[in-house]
Amino acid sequence: MNTRLAFLVALLSFNLSAQVTALRVGHLVDPETGSVANNQIVLVENGKFTDVGANVAIPAGAEVVDLSKSWVTQGLVDAHNHLALTYKMLPENNSYYLTTVLDSTAIRAIQAVSNGITMMSAGFTLVRDLGNNGNYADTALRVAIEQGWVPGPTIINSGIIIGGFGGQFSPVPERENLMYPEYLNADTNDEIVKAVRRNIAYGAKVIKICVDCKPYGYTADEIRLFISEAAKAGLKVAGHVQTNAGALRAIEAGIWSIEHSSGLDDKTHRLMAEKGIWRVGTETPLSDYHTGMTDAAKERYKKQEDGLKNAYAHKVKLAFSTDADYYIPGMTRGQVVIDFLKSWKDAEIPAKEILKIMTVNGYQVSDIYGQRGPIKPGMAADLIAVRENPLENIDTLRDVRWVMKDGMFFKREGAMTPEKFFHSGPTPPSAWRIH
Questions:
Q1: Rounded to 5 degrees, what are φ and ψ at 383?
Q2: CATH class given for the domain over 19-74+374-421
Q3: Fewest beta carbons less than 10 Å away: which of 11, 50, 326, 354?
Q4: Residue pLDDT, tens place only, 100-112
Q5: Angle subtended by helix axes 295-313 and 266-275, to nearest 10
Q6: Residue range(s) of every CATH 2.30.40.10 domain in the chain
Q7: How far is CA 340 from CA 7, 89, 260, 346, 366, in A?
Q8: How far apart are the C-alpha atoms of 217 and 220, rounded to whole Å?
C-alpha cells in the first residue's frame, strides 16, 4: 500500500470513528418498566443509538461523554401545544382571537422557532403541535427543523384545525373570512374529505377536528369519515372536545385521541379505557398567572384534578399535554410547560407513572414510538439527563442538564449549544418536500 493510499484509509477510519459518541451513564432510567440500570455505556452513531449495556466496548476515537453522575432517560413529550401562538396572559390582551388578527404567519413562524428552542432546553424533544398556527407555520417549523435550518424538537403537526362553520370563533357577517387561516370550514362530507386532503398536502402529520365547537357539531358518522380519510395517508385524528355529548360521539366513532377534559366524566373514561382512546387532557395548574386564585378558579381546578384521578383509576391512556399558547412574563414556553407537573402531582399520580406518561405515552399518542423513544439500538438518539432519579422525584425534570436530539447535544451541563444544529449536514432530497 503506497503512502497516499495509507493516508486516505487512515483518514477515512478516523472520520468514521469520530462519528461515534460514547456516553458513560451512571443511571439509565427506563420509564416503560420503571427500572434503573446502573453504569451503562450508550453508543450513538449517525443520529441513532447503536449499543447499550454495561460491558459495551468503546470504539477507538469515539467522543466520550461523562454522565456517570446523572440519571438519563427518554426525551420528554408535550402532546398538545401551539408553538406558533403566543398571546400575553394579561388582562389587557388575554385573547388569542386578537393575536390571530394582528400577527402574520411569518412572525408566528419565528415565534414557533423561539418556542421550540425553549421547549428543547426544557427537555422536550417531541411536540405534538395541534393547530392555531396561521397559514401552516407549523409545517414550516417542522420542515425547517428536519432540514437543519433551526434547532427544535420533533414536530407532529396538524395543519389548520377543521371544524363546522366558524370553528371556535364567533364570526360576524361582515368579517366571516377572519376565521381563515385559523380554521377550515367543513360542513358536508365532500368538504370534510377536501379539508383532510388539503392539510395532508400541506404537511400535516395528524388531523385535528373541532368535534363540538358549535351546536352543529360533527356526528359519529362524520367523525368516522375524518378517521377513514386520514387513515389513507396513515394519519390519526385528534378531536377537540368541549361537551359530554361530543365526547360520546367521538368515542362511538373510535377517534384516536380526545383533546381537553371538560367534557369527560366517569362514563366516558370507562368507555375510553375499553376502546383504548387517548386522553390528552391539558390540565392547567392552578396559579396566579394561569387562572387566578379565586374561589371559582379553585373549584374548577378541583373538578379538573378529580377528573384526572378518575381517568387514572380507570386506566385510561393518558398523555402529558398543556395547550400552551400564551406568554407569561419571565417564563419561556418550556418553563410554562414543565410547570404543568403541578397538576399531575396534585392528582396524586406517582412520579414513575408521570414519567412514563411524559415519555412512553407521549411517543405512543404521537404514533412514533417505533422510531423514537426507547434508548435502544436502532432508535433515534434523543435523551435527557437530570441530577436525581425522576422515578422518585419528578420535579428533577425542572432542571434538565443535558439534551441530545438525533445524536447531537443541544444542551450540555445546563448550557445550550444549538449551533451544531444549524446546517448540520446534507439533507436527503425527500426531506426537502413539504410533505
A1: -160, 165
A2: mainly beta
A3: 11
A4: 888 899 999 999 9
A5: 40
A6: 19-74+374-421
A7: 55, 16, 14, 10, 19
A8: 10
> Please, which contacts does 264-271 make with residues 24 or more away whose CB atoms are closer than 8 Å?
264/307, 264/311, 265/307, 265/310, 266/310, 266/314, 268/244, 269/310, 269/311, 269/314, 269/316, 270/314
**Set of cell numbers at residue 284:** 392547567
Q: What are phi and psi of 387, to 5 degrees?
A: -85, -20
Report CA dihedral (124, 203, 360, 394) to the nearest 10 degrees.
20
pLDDT value, residue 427: 46
Angle at alpha carbon of residue 200, lines to 197 and 205, rounded to 5°: 145
Average pLDDT over residues 331-353: 97
Residue 351: how many other CB atoms lie within 10 Å:
20
Q: pTM for this one?
A: 0.92
Task: Give me the residue label for grid cell 453522575.
Answer: 69
* CATH tag for 76-365 (out of 3.90.700.10, 3.20.20.140, 3.30.70.980, 1.10.10.60): 3.20.20.140
